[in-house]
Amino acid sequence: MALVVLAVVFLVVAGLYAVGVLQFMVSDPNASHHYTHAILFSVLAVASLIGANFARAKRTG
Amino acid sequence: MPSGSIYGYIGDQMTLTQALFMGLLQGATELFPVSSLGHAVLIPSLLHWGFKQSDPSFVPFLVLLHLGTAGALLFIYRSQWVGIIKGFFTAAVRGRIETPTERLAMLLLVGTIPAGILGVYLEHELKNLFASPTAAACFLIANGFLMLGAEVLRRRAERRAAVTAKTRVEQEESFGAAEQISFRAAALVGACQALALLPGISRSGITIGGGLLAGLRHEEAARFSFLLATPIIAAAGVLEIPQLFSTAVPWAEYLAAATLAGSAAYLSARFLLRYFRSGRLDPYGWYCAAAGVISLALLTFRP
């Protein structure tokens, strides 16, 4: 469950970077979008969901 | 306009010959454990070439060189990548790893994440801090000693394991394959990739060294290093593709350099995979240390 929550948080952060609301540690603070950061957090979200699925399979199996 | 120059784009100074040379250099040194970034910073400076890779106008050129290198790696491991991608989705949906290929796919994911995080957040700062030829020479020396250190530890592990094989190939066979590395080791090896943002520290050198410390055969450490590098190099290239269309790019010259980079990367990977069946990192370690010292001397004492 914790990993699913983490995935949601990562997705929100990815969205904020993509629309340019979040400017945390970016190379160009004037840029309107930070796609690299958004992609990174999307990958982290996917990895968290995979981790959650692995944990679920371990519990049920 | 001077004949054969990519005039008006890369600082008005890079000739076609220089572009092709940089393509060849990038392709070869990206996979050899000698630091492509270090060489790319040092050699133009030592040859008194005016352009700087840190210049923003250089980005499209670097993008194509990286895509050429990533293309070569994808071509070499094309059948493995098909298996890795299939294995990734199968294991992710099933929630369980059942085959070595599925395990390798997850190891690559675990290894890529720390490199991605550190790369995204530290690349700009590190490149700005250490983009000088003197820093590159110092890091090249450090890179050499890191690889030599990894081999010292490996020899110690060989003695501890009492490996009594007749040949180096047999001796290597007592160590593991890439699929057998632990997830913690994969994450550490992946994180080590971020050190390659320092000009002079080699991505392949540090990851092969890490693989050796994790108990992999040299050839398998090189395979894991190349597989681990492919998504990062490809992503770095693909993410910058829009830059190619933001300004007028001399496509013919750039593509020629990228093709040369890809060809050099292909030949380098083939050579290295063959070399590491019995070879060690030592020659590259000594080369980096010597090249760093000589570069430092030339940079300090040149007129």
For the largest beta-sheet of chain B, the strand count, sense and barrel status come to: none
- Average pLDDT level of chain A: 87
Give the tally of β-strands of chain B.
Answer: 0
Q: Overall pLDDT of chain B, averaged? A: 87
Features:
heterodimer, A: 61 residues, mainly alpha, 2 helices, 0% strand, B: 303 residues, 13 helices, 72% helix, globular
Summarize the structure in words:
The complex is a heterodimer of chains A (61) and B (303). Chain A has one domain. Helix content of chain A is 72%, strand content 0%. Chain A is built from two helices and no strands. Chain A has helices at 2-19, 35-60. The radius of gyration of chain A is 14 Å and the shape is elongated. Chain B has 13 helices and no strands. Chain B has one domain (16-48, 55-301). The radius of gyration of chain B is 20 Å and the shape is globular. Chain A binds chain B through residues 25, 27, 35-37, 39-40, 43-44, 47, 50, 53-54, 56-58, 61, and chain B through 92-96, 106, 109, 113, 116-117, 120-121, 123-124, 235, 239.
Quick structural summary:
The complex is a heterodimer of chains A (61) and B (303). In chain A, α1 (2-19) runs antiparallel to α2 (35-60). Chain A has 61 residues and is mainly α.
